[in-house]
Amino acid sequence: MAAADSPSAALRRRDLCSRGIRLAGKMRSDVIDLLDTYVERQGLDASASVVAVEGVPAAAAERWDKQTGTQRLLDNLAAYRAFRALLAQMLEEQREQLGEADAALGQALAAVLLQVSAFAYHLEELLRLESRGPPSEEGAGPPPLPHLGLFERKLRGLGVLRELAQWAVRSARDLRQLAKPGPGSSSAPSPAESP
Amino acid sequence: MFSAWNWVAHGLYLLLNIFFLEVSGGLVQSCGHIIPESPVLALGSNFTALCILNESCLDFGNIYANQIIWKIKNRVVPKEQYREINRTVSSVTFNDTSSLATPLTCNILADGQIEQNIYGITVTIGLPPEKPKNLSCIVHQVSKLTYPMTCTWNPGRHTFLDTHFRLKYRWPQENFPDCIPKDVNNSCTITDVQFFVNLEVWVEAANALGKAESDPLVLDPIEIVKPLSPHNLSVNSGILPTVLKLSWENRISAAVMKLKFNIRYRIIGDTNWMQVPPEDTASPRTSFSVQGLRPYTEYVFSIRCMKEDGVGYWSDWSEEKTGVTTEDKPTKGPPIWRIIDASRSPASWTVHLMWKALEPFEANGVILQYEVTVRAKSSLSSPPEKYSVNTTNLTLKLPNGTYEVTVIARNRVGASPPSVLLIPASNSKAPVKNVRTLPKDGKLWVGWTAPNSYVLKYVIEWCLVSNSSDCITEWQNEPGNVQGTYLKGDIKPFKCYLITVYPLYADGQGSGQSVKAYLQQDRPSKGPTVQTKKVGKAEAVLTWNHLTVDEQNGFIRSYTIFYKTIDGNETAVTVDPSKTEYTLSSLTSDTLYTVRMMAYTDEGGRSGPDFTFTTQKFGKGEIEAIVVPVCLAFLLIVLLGVLFCFNKRDLIKKHIWPIVPDPSKSNIAQWSPQVPAKHNFSSKDQMYPEGSFTDVSVVEIEADDKKSFSEQDLKPFDLLKKEKSTSEGHSSGIGGSSCMSSPRQSVSDSDEGEATQNTSSTVQYSTVVLNGYRDQTPVQVFSRSESTQPLLDSEERSEDHAGGGDSATQRQQYFKRNGGQDETNTDRPCFERTKQITPANEGDLVGFAQLQISGQSSQPLGIELEKNTQEAALSDVLQTSTEGQTVRPETVEGSPLSVDEMPKSYLPQTVRQGGYMPQ
């Protein structure tokens, strides 16, 4: 924690939190826009319910308010690494499926993928500031996806995006919690701030 | 012979080896090559090239490295730069590649004569790339989700080589593909960037001589965003007439950035923008109410935005939208003034009321009408007259008096406060003083000194004074606490304005004080046209007309008259501008002068046309002074001549047309003293009919017989003189040749009554002339002669004799009587007689008086009397100086000749005097 105690580390941490929160906000905004585009382009029903997608971490946490800051960061990092892989696969599938015909959807997916990647970088940096260091990605990614049909892939994509939107909200709250000054940065947030 | 053929064969072989030594598979193999092949060299560096000859050429061509010649283009490289490394390799070294050029060739002198090319290379010279500098980036928002980032940099110096620039960027954990500029070398655009992650950006420049990288730029692209301006701006009028509400849409997500705004606005037609205080719009929003606006005014609005924290760039201003505030009541009444025309009737006025339309910011709406109320102050009981007009003037005919005029402007919302103008019966209050003007800042400022009394307000009237147009009055109101103002109108330069200031009091009005002014003066547009009114010998009176107001362009400060002769210097005279006439003096007479005139304002002068005139040769009165005396002298001479001729008329007459007596008409019988001549005339005609001669005798006289004029002979002559002094008037001569006695003595005068009475006792001869001489009317005259001598041949002869009296041998002929006596008297008798009279006693004067009576004219006599008096005096002198010669005084006086010649003139005198010629 020595690094976290230095003023520069505190500034760096605050800056990372601040920009992470805004990035999460933008990511959510973009994902919601992307959802609309995706549903439209993929011919899906916006109200279609999607069961939990395998490999997609759930944003909801039963004891969110009890989590420490590090735990929050680790959960976030695991989730976004998973999203990064899922979105990359979706982008690949989308290119295979639509080719360059729907460049806007591909660009939007690529932009969200970049943001997910950037957010993961934020989380890794914060973990470094926590003197924790990011865990290795080896084995941390989602298991190899089973071969799915086209429609299933569409539904899975819809589920990924919806969950990502949820995570964006949660991540913003997690980072706000982390950004609060004081030694209790890694302590559990108050129940009032729980989502 | 063999040697020659050998050389020829060798040469051919060499050529074939050099150029086409061996053709194998379409490739040409040369006799050597250069290392390095087509190098790229840094400008200013040193460079060494090697030319390596093929071994095969050595055997057949007999060529070696020492025969190699290096050339740059066609220029031979100095031998000092060569080095023969071995028999097949030659090197050349350049210390500075700037002296290099393409191609660099390796050549050889075959047989020491023929230069042949072995190989050549292309040398490329350039510079390594410089480190790109001043890298900067900006993210332009082009749509809601698209944020391309454009980075620019300074590529550095020109490298003369193909240099590639790449914009590199990366996240700490992720690299992105390079951005490669298209067509330019100093900017590149990354199509999309992600915010909230630091991006490291740098530029890499590379060419054949190396590569260089700029300093990296680490930034979060969100900090360099230039967002799109808000759009769909709308302006809505609110409830209040001073408020407009703006609404818009932002085109950047709040999740990306929070915005702050600038709102600017202006009145339409105005160029100056006003801005809503930035602190009022420093937070994210999509609407704003602008307050403090003018009622019924159209405004133009525009808005822009940027990141809330001020990091980044302002967007462009949005499209402009207009909105109009609602109407409100006019804030003030229209300024009012009047022009009173009292010329038509002394008892009533024609009052032209005029007021100015309210400014838009005062009208606060559309003025629908003006309500004018005129109330006579003198008769408070009478109701006020009310008028509703749509124009800004009203003409009323009012009796003389004091009136209060009120004007109200009304729009849809309500009425303005009233404007009140008091029209007094007379402008009896104190006027302003010291009205002055001053051009300032392109406007005309009018100042005045306020009167001592409290002034409610001032009215400044002005109009443009011009010959071509009437004075159209403009006016403006000023509050009573000022003493100067700028004229609010289109005041033109170089034009004359008449400005009048009126003070308005609560109970009256002061008379106007006027001043003329120019906003800007210029030289007059033309000069005065000068001309002469009167030209004299040494002076000329010049006149000119004043320039018209339109020509003056300013206040005429002076006139200057320039005048000169053709070859003389120009003389300038400054004249007061009020004058229209000037007299040039001290001019040279009879000289051509050129005169012109300049009119000066404060800004300079302009000359009028030249005018020439010539001064007169003579001054006023000079001609008269010369001509009058000359004329007088001429007249005098003429008069004297006339007098002279009159005096000498007998002589002249005799010379020109002498009267020849008609002997045929002579009648001696009738010519008797006892018989009155009158009685004989009729009988004479009867007795001597025309053309008949009676008795003609001719007497010849030796007139020059001096001996006959002895002293003794002269004695009786003296006696005769005495007798003559008393009776001369009674004597008569033929032909009337005596100037004094001719009228009576002349036959033609025929005063026979007197002639008869004057007949002396001496023998008298009669002469009868039948025919007239020359043009004279023949007169049959009975004439008598006092001479006792017989008649001579003719009077001409005697005349000749008298003229040449000194001729002793000349004979004189008398026609019946000795007319020569009379003829000799033509010159002398008068003088002789006066000579006799002057020394004589009073008895002699009696005779002279008789002569006067007998004369036809008294004037010659008078003159002759004067002459006689002078001559008498002279004779006195002579008498006293020549004592003992008193016998001959008349001789001395009778002729101006010398004393020695005197005796020559005795004969005719004696004949005349005595009427007797001794024979």
TrEMBL record, chain A:
<feature type="region of interest" description="Disordered">
    <location>
        <begin position="176"/>
        <end position="195"/>
    </location>
</feature>
<comment type="similarity">
    <text>Belongs to the CNTF family.</text>
</comment>
<keyword id="KW-0221">Differentiation</keyword>
<protein>
    <recommendedName>
        <fullName>Ciliary neurotrophic factor</fullName>
    </recommendedName>
</protein>
<dbReference type="InterPro" id="IPR009079">
    <property type="entry name" value="4_helix_cytokine-like_core"/>
</dbReference>
<keyword id="KW-0217">Developmental protein</keyword>
<dbReference type="GO" id="GO:0043524">
    <property type="term" value="P:negative regulation of neuron apoptotic process"/>
</dbReference>
<dbReference type="GO" id="GO:0005615">
    <property type="term" value="C:extracellular space"/>
</dbReference>
<dbReference type="InterPro" id="IPR000151">
    <property type="entry name" value="Ciliary_neurotrophic_fac_CNTF"/>
</dbReference>
<keyword id="KW-0524">Neurogenesis</keyword>
<dbReference type="GO" id="GO:0030424">
    <property type="term" value="C:axon"/>
</dbReference>
<keyword id="KW-0963">Cytoplasm</keyword>
<dbReference type="Pfam" id="PF01110">
    <property type="entry name" value="CNTF"/>
</dbReference>
<dbReference type="GO" id="GO:0048680">
    <property type="term" value="P:positive regulation of axon regeneration"/>
</dbReference>
<keyword id="KW-0339">Growth factor</keyword>
<dbReference type="GO" id="GO:0005737">
    <property type="term" value="C:cytoplasm"/>
</dbReference>
<feature type="compositionally biased region" description="Low complexity">
    <location>
        <begin position="181"/>
        <end position="195"/>
    </location>
</feature>
<dbReference type="GO" id="GO:0070120">
    <property type="term" value="P:ciliary neurotrophic factor-mediated signaling pathway"/>
</dbReference>
<dbReference type="GO" id="GO:0048143">
    <property type="term" value="P:astrocyte activation"/>
</dbReference>
<comment type="function">
    <text>CNTF is a survival factor for various neuronal cell types. Seems to prevent the degeneration of motor axons after axotomy.</text>
</comment>
<dbReference type="GO" id="GO:0005125">
    <property type="term" value="F:cytokine activity"/>
</dbReference>
<dbReference type="GO" id="GO:0008083">
    <property type="term" value="F:growth factor activity"/>
</dbReference>
From TrEMBL, chain B:
<feature type="domain" description="Fibronectin type-III">
    <location>
        <begin position="524"/>
        <end position="618"/>
    </location>
</feature>
<dbReference type="InterPro" id="IPR003961">
    <property type="entry name" value="FN3_dom"/>
</dbReference>
<feature type="compositionally biased region" description="Polar residues">
    <location>
        <begin position="779"/>
        <end position="791"/>
    </location>
</feature>
<keyword id="KW-1003">Cell membrane</keyword>
<keyword id="KW-0677">Repeat</keyword>
<dbReference type="GO" id="GO:0004896">
    <property type="term" value="F:cytokine receptor activity"/>
</dbReference>
<dbReference type="Pfam" id="PF06328">
    <property type="entry name" value="Lep_receptor_Ig"/>
</dbReference>
<dbReference type="InterPro" id="IPR036116">
    <property type="entry name" value="FN3_sf"/>
</dbReference>
<dbReference type="GO" id="GO:0070102">
    <property type="term" value="P:interleukin-6-mediated signaling pathway"/>
</dbReference>
<feature type="domain" description="Fibronectin type-III">
    <location>
        <begin position="131"/>
        <end position="224"/>
    </location>
</feature>
<keyword id="KW-0393">Immunoglobulin domain</keyword>
<keyword id="KW-1133">Transmembrane helix</keyword>
<keyword id="KW-0675">Receptor</keyword>
<keyword id="KW-0597">Phosphoprotein</keyword>
<dbReference type="InterPro" id="IPR003529">
    <property type="entry name" value="Hematopoietin_rcpt_Gp130_CS"/>
</dbReference>
<dbReference type="InterPro" id="IPR013783">
    <property type="entry name" value="Ig-like_fold"/>
</dbReference>
<dbReference type="Pfam" id="PF00041">
    <property type="entry name" value="fn3"/>
</dbReference>
<feature type="domain" description="Fibronectin type-III">
    <location>
        <begin position="226"/>
        <end position="328"/>
    </location>
</feature>
<comment type="similarity">
    <text>Belongs to the type I cytokine receptor family. Type 2 subfamily.</text>
</comment>
<dbReference type="InterPro" id="IPR052672">
    <property type="entry name" value="Type1_Cytokine_Rcpt_Type2"/>
</dbReference>
<protein>
    <recommendedName>
        <fullName>Interleukin-6 receptor subunit beta</fullName>
    </recommendedName>
</protein>
<dbReference type="GO" id="GO:0005886">
    <property type="term" value="C:plasma membrane"/>
</dbReference>
